[in-house]
Amino acid sequence: MSELVTGEAVALELRPAKLPSRGLAVLLDLAVAVTVYVLVTLGLVAATASLDEAARTAVSIATFVLVLVGGPILVETLTHGRSLGKLACGLRVVRDDGGPIRFRHALVRGLLGVIEILMTFGVVACVASLVSARGRRLGDVFAGTLVVRERVPAAGQGGFVPPPPPWLAGRFSGLDLSAVPDGLWLAVRQYLTRMRQLDPQVGWSMAERLASDVAGRTGAPVPPGVPPAMYLAAVLQERQTREAQRAFGGGVAAPAAPASPVPAVGQGGPVLPPPAVPPTPVSPAVPPAVPPSSSEAPGVPAERPATGFVPPA
């Protein structure tokens, strides 16, 4: 996963390079290679002056192969597809799936480049690039590579992470995201900010790979029926929500009132409050009325309830 984030993050921007920029990059690379070849040849001529003709011929052939063929292969392998010419033109060689190239990819491109660039003066490479829908020459077709633009002009929405659909909001609140490394989060964010710039097939495969990595770290599989890009957006939003709660809310959520279980959004019907129970009417306590006794003697006051007041004597 680190290769996708660090030096090879350009795999997230698969915009095929056009023929003019590729031709300019090849010319710059050839100019550097020829200059190095001439300098090395002059040094070898002075160093092999005492050798016979056959030895000098063998040294010349070996120099040609090592400098003009082995040099570009070595440079593309060490720089993961960025030669001097491609660096100047903002290009890079990547695999068809968007990953960085290896030695075998650079080897196939370099060997076929001798035929379609050096021996035919670039005619075969230009024709193949014009015929291909993605601008690939024969070396790219056999090696399974693609030359892409590394410097993409800003479209006014750089860094914008699209939100998940409303029916996925809060659905992954129970996931354990502590095992997901920062490099994987960065890869997910870069994919979401640039997924509209990707080839649809490559973008879908990359989303599936990232979703599988996130699901493996969290221990919960991707829910069936949820597209991988939407799953990544929902999980990333859940992580951002938790970080915001820790930063601004102290990381302690307010205790919720006890209520019946409420289904999560998107998993059932609309969220309804628990049914209200009407209070039982309570009749006020009324003391029973005591009718006055007719047998009381006149002038004798009737008994009154104790009020705490003592009349004066």
From TrEMBL:
Its main location: membrane. The keyword Repeat does not apply. The chain crosses the membrane at residues 24-45, 57-75, 110-131. Residues 253-265, 292-302 have a biased composition (Low complexity). It comes from the Bacteria. Residues 271-291 have a biased composition (Pro residues). Keywords: Membrane, Transmembrane, Transmembrane helix. Residues 17-144 form the RDD domain. It is found in: Membrane. It is a multi-pass membrane protein. The keyword Transmembrane applies. Pfam families: RDD. This is RDD family protein.
